[in-house]
Specification:
By secondary structure, the chain is an alpha/beta fold. It is built from 14 helices and 17 strands. It is globular and about 80 Å long. The protein starts with 13 loop residues before the first strand and ends in a 9-residue tail after the last helix. 40% of the residues are buried. The structure holds NADP nicotinamide-adenine-dinucleotide phosphate. NADP nicotinamide-adenine-dinucleotide phosphate binds next to helix 1.
């Protein structure tokens, strides 16, 4: 066993219990993150994992899964013996009784306190049941010799009322401070850098308001289609899958006021305030502010790809949206009158997540004739993925005798500037949950505010007559999305 002496931050001996240990999230995200944290000497030697699921894996099968899903695990050695498996039905109290025994025995053998982190990596409809049974079996209480916390993954409900129910189901067994709601976007370095950019520099905040900003654009473009997740996506759609969570999270960090301190509570308070200021459209207003689209076949990277309705497990008459563009307004002193455009889509030309702050144009251009005709507005572009960079677009003179002005970009790239490796979002978030740092997690009221914003849109979309515009795979969405901006004199900035 490798001995990790110099842990960067102190984590006590803890047992991580993963419900849904046979699933996709466990293999693709959780186990690789644990492996990487171990390799980076972030975890204590007394760290154990219990996988819980119905599949008959056994300790050996689970350990094989651990090795397969974390192929690059350099220093595992005999540490693999600290991975255990409990086969059981999530809805039966006997599973939780067996879990209690296993936890007690591991904690006794390893001579640790009773710090336990439960990770619900199974289907969301089980979240309420699992947390209730953890409560009933006495596993939800934090004892004197350790913490008890629980992580859940989106979706946090399907609408406002189911999200409220999920909160109240969970609060029956766990206090809000014990619940860690993951939105993995918040684990991304560039998303966190939004706060650093805004609040550690003096030059941006003075112009970060309606007096200087003409409009804000947030784009989450995916190049992939639905792949093997057609069945899941048919019940989700872009509004619920991306806008309700990731996009409204990014929006709140871009538009919120400065927190007094970089603490979870201060930041979450400011996020809730700005989400509360987002104007909630009436169902009748949704049509004039929202464009809903679905991809049809097209070409991406010179390859023909099929349309959404031809994908596996998708109905040939599906009305599920794979694209949404919206114009939002934030009714507060800072943002009154500034349109906030957001859009997300699948099968777009490339994968990119970015925020564009478009500034007002110079009030007067003294240059003769058309010499500044190629000059676009000043923009600050925060690219979140795939490249992590910040770009400032401004006018510069083209070399030569004529006084031609053209837009140029000044670029800061994470990869070029820092030697330190960016942490994967799950590594960061799991470590924070172990450390009890809630800054990058969602509070219950944030989740509800976000549902309240999307709810009228959800209702409008459920009307079968609400327009669903086709767009060819490999394009930036239906032309109606461009018209949405043109109607107010704006246009999308595509990279
Ligand atoms: N996968 C991702 O990339 C991803 C991304 C973001 C969020 N999430 C969220 O993370 C959670 C887990 O996602 P996942 O993709 O890992 O799910 P999954 O693979 O569909 O399910 C995880 C495990 O839950 C059990 N399970 C599945 N269907 C069940 C059913 N009907 N009744 C009882 N148990 C069932 C299965 O284990 P057993 O049959 O062995 O019990 C399965 O291996 C979900 O909340 C999901 O929304 C996932």
């Amino acid at each position: 066993m490798s001995i990790h002496m110099n842990r960067k931050r102190q984590i006590e001996g803890t047992t991580l219990v993963i419900f849904g240990a046979s699933g996709d999230l466990t293999s693709r995200k959780i186990l690789p993150a644990i492996a990487s944290l171990w390799d980076q000497e972030q975890l204590p030697n007394e760290f154990s994992v219990i996988g819980v699921a119905r599949s008959p894996l056994g300790d050996e099968g689970f350990r094989r899964l651990v090795m397969e899903s974390a192929a690059s695990w350099d220093s595992i050695g005999t540490y693999i013996e600290n991975f255990h498996y409990l086969q059981g039905d999530y809805t039966s109290i006997s599973t939780y009784q067996s879990l209690t025994k296993l936890l007690d025995s591991i904690e006794q053998t390893r001579q640790t306190g009773k710090s336990r982190l439960f990770y619900l990596a199974t289907i969301p409809s089980l979240f309420g049941t699992i947390s209730s049974l953890l409560g009933e079996s006495g596993l939800s209480q934090s004892g004197a010799s350790g913490f008890t916390r629980i992580i859940i993954e989106k979706p946090f409900g399907n609408d406002t009322s189911s999200a409220l129910k999920l909160n109240s189901d969970m609060h029956r067994s766990f206090s809000e401070e014990q619940i860690y709601r993951i939105d993995h976007y918040l684990g991304k370095e560039t998303v966190q850098n939004l706060l650093a950019l805004r609040f550690s520099n003096a030059i941006f905040e003075p112009i970060w308001n309606r007096n200087f900003v003409n409009n804000v654009q947030i784009t989450v473009a995916e190049q992939i289609g639905v792949g093997h997740r057609g069945g899941f996506y048919e019940n989700a759609g872009a509004l619920k899958d991306i806008i309700q969570n990731h996009m409204l999270q990014v929006l709140s960090l871009v538009l919120m006021e400065a927190p007094a301190l970089m603490t979870a509570e201060s930041i979450q308070n400011e996020k809730v305030k700005v989400l509360s200021a987002v104007e909630i459209p009436s169902i009748a207003e949704v049509a004039s502010r929202t464009v809903r689209g679905q991809y049809v076949s097209g070409v991406i990277n010179s390859e023909e790809v099929k349309g959404y309705r031809e994908e596996r497990d998708v109905s040939s008459t599906s009305k599920t949206e794979t694209y949404v563009a919206m114009r939002l307004a934030v009714d507060n002193w800072r943002w009154a009158g500034v349109p906030i455009f957001i859009r997300t889509g699948k099968r777009m030309p490339k994968r990119e997540t970015q925020v564009v702050m478009e500034f007002n144009r110079a009030p007067h251009l003294p240059f003769i004739g058309g010499s500044a005709r190629q000059l676009g507005p000043n923009r600050l572009i925060l690219r979140i993925q795939p490249e992590e960079e910040i770009k400032l677009v401004f006018g510069a003179k083209v070399p030569g005798q004529d006084y031609n002005i053209r837009s140029v970009a000044m670029n800061f790239s994470y990869a070029d500037t820092f030697k330190e490796v960016s942490w994967d979002a799950y590594e960061r978030l799991i470590l924070d949950a172990l450390l009890g740092d809630r800054t990058l997690f969602l509070r219950s009221d944030e989740v509800i505010k976000a549902w309240e914003i999307v709810e009228p849109i959800q209702r409008a979309f459920s009307d079968l007559d609400f327009p669903l515009y086709p767009y060819a795979a490999g394009t930036y969405g239906p032309k109606e999305a461009s018209k949405l901006l043109q109607s107010t004199g704006h246009y999308w900035h595509n990279s």
